[in-house]
Amino acid sequence: MIARLAAPRDGGDRAVSICAFRLPENAGAVSCSLSRASTGNAPRSGALQDREAFEELAVTLLKTAQSDGHELELAMVDMEGLEAARKGASPADRAALDRKLSGALRAEAYGGAAATALGDERFALVRARGEAMSALVQRVTKLVNAGTAGQITATAEAVPLKSDGDRQAVRALRYCLDTFLKEGPGANMPTTLSDALSKSMEKTLDEVGALGSAIRNREFHLVYQPVIALQTGGLHHYEALVRFGDGSPFPLIRMAEEMDLIESLDLAILERALETLVQRPGLKLAVNVSGRTIASSDFIENATRAIAAYPKARGRLMFELTESAALEDLKVADRHLGALRDQGCEICLDDFGAGAASLAYLQQLRLDVLKIDGRYIRDLQRGGREATFVKHLVSMCQELKIRTLAEMVETEEAEAAVREAGVDYAQGWFYGAASDDLDWSPGKKAA
C-alpha cells in the first residue's frame, strides 16, 4: 500500500510504500517493510481515485502484473444502504464512514490505490485473482459496518483482466464500468475483458453512427456560461458549450475524439456560434476547439471561410484550445491559430496546469488569454503552494501580455482571492451555470 505522509515543515510532499505479510512458520508474526514512493501514486487523505486516474492506473497495473506473472480482475462492489446511512449521519460520522469505506476498498485493491467511486453506492477496484468474491464482500461489509447499526450490505462481481493493448484495455474497462454503473449487480456483465471489448465495439459502432448523424443534422444545442471582467464586475463574454439532449456531453465528446469526429463537431459548433453572434449584436462568444482539430489544415480552411462569411461577427469570437488531445507540433498549431487571429479571433489556452499543457505552450503559442485550471482556484483562498503558483503564473502572463481567466469560481471568497491574485476574468457557478440565458447581469450572481 502507498501512504502519503504528513507534510513536513518545509512543505514538501512525501509518500512511503508499505509492504506487509504474515509469516506462518514464525508463529504468525508479520513482516513489514517501508520504502520511499512517488507521491504521484498516493491518493490524498486516503481518498479514492477519480475515475480517469483509476482507468489509467488499472491499465498500468495490468501491464506490470502480466509481466510479473500475476493475474488481476476488475471487482465491482455495490454497497446497498450506504447512501441512507450517509443521510442519517452527522457530518463527522459521515466523514468517518467515508474514510472507513475508502480504506476498506483500497485495502482490497492491488497495490493499495486502484479503487474508485462510480456512483453513490457503486465502486470498482482492481485486485489479484484467486480469492472468492464472497471473502471480499465479507471483509468490506464488516469494516464499513463497524460501530454502526449494520444496515449496509455489499454485493460484488468480477471480470478477469487480460488484454493485448492499452487502448483496447481502456475501452473494455470503460464498458464494464459503465454497464455496472447503469445496470448494477446482476447485469449482463461480460465474462472476460475480451468479451467486454467485443460488446464495447458493438455498442460504440451504434453510438458513433448516431453521433455522426447528430453532428451532420445539427442535432445539438449550445448553452452559455458567463465570463466576468473582474476589474469592472461586468460581463466580458460567454463560453458556448455543446449539449446533446439532457445527459452529460463529455462521453460523446470523448467518443468524437477517439473516432475522429471531433473536427466535424468543432466546425458545426463554430457555425452555430457564428449564427448566434449575428443574431445578437454586441455579444462575444468563446468556442472550444480540440488540439487534434487545430492540427488539421482542412479545419482551418473551413473555419476561416465560415468566419469570413459572417463579417458582422468579426472581433467577437474567441477559440478556447482544449487539452483533450495534446498538441504534437506546436509550430503547426501556432501557424493555424495565427490564421484564426488574422480573422479577428482571440485565442485562449484552456485548463492550464492540468493534462498536457505546459510552459512550452506559453513559449511557442501566441495567446491572448490563459484559463487557469479550476483545481488551483478551489485552493487559492487557502494560501500555500496553489496560491503561490497562481500568483507567479499571473505575473508571468502579465509580462507576456497574456490575460488570465480563472475557472470554477464558486464563492465570494474565491472571487476575492482571484481578484487579489491579479486575474483578469472569472467564470464559475458564483456567476451562473451554463444555460440558454444570454442576458446576464451582476444581479444574477449566485446567492
Keywords, separated by commas or semicolons:
447 residues; Alpha-Beta Plaits; 3 domains; eight-stranded mixed beta barrel; four-stranded antiparallel β-sheet; 15 helices; 42% helix; 21% strand; globular
In short:
By secondary structure, the protein is of the alpha/beta class. Helices cover 42% and strands 21% of the residues.
Question: Can you tell me about this structure?
Answer:
The chain has 447 residues and is α/β, with parallel strands linked by helices. Helix content is 42%, strand content 21%. The chain has helices at residues 51-67, 82-87, 91-108, 133-145, 166-183, 193-216, 250-258, 262-279, 291-294, 297-308, 330-341, 359-364, 374-380, 384-399, 412-420; strands spanning 2-4, 15-23, 29-37, 72-80, 115-117, 122-128, 153-161, 221-229, 234-243, 285-289, 317-321, 346-352, 369-372, 403-406, 425-427. The strands form three sheets. An eight-stranded mixed barrel has the order 8-9-10-11-12-13-14-15, surrounded by four helices. Strands 5-6-4-7 form a four-stranded antiparallel beta sheet, with helices on both faces. The two termini are 43 Å apart. The model is unreliable at 41-45 (pLDDT under 50).
